[in-house]
Design brief:
about 140 residues, alpha+beta, globular
Length: about 140
Amino acid sequence: MTGRIVRRGQLAFYLTSGERHEMQELIPLLDSGQVKRTGRGRPKLPPLALAADRGYSSYATRNELQRRGIRPVIPPKRDLKRSWRYDREQYRKRHHVEQMVNRLKRYHRVATRYEKRGWMYLAVVMISAIREWAASLALL
């Protein structure tokens, strides 16, 4: 499962098979969770930056993000010959996604993935996310 947090705490999840690398699912994740506009209105703004761990640090990923107008905040792998700069302050904000995944894994069904069907597991993840959101509203 791969997740992203959009502005104002909106969540988007994309379920991947267990043996696929998450980097192959980056583009579908970027495309998921968008609001379809049926009529007139303000255009949907793409994310300004994307913070990801070193597993996503490839030239192809960086080029695709830059083609979409998204600033990559991805540290380079240590074994690359050419390195690049990245915003360390923006990269530190990546912990919000990690905390979100850890909060969801408090639910036993999310952590162990009992469900055999992907759509069923994604439904359990969504229900867990809704419960976490409702609990956060109670704290306000």
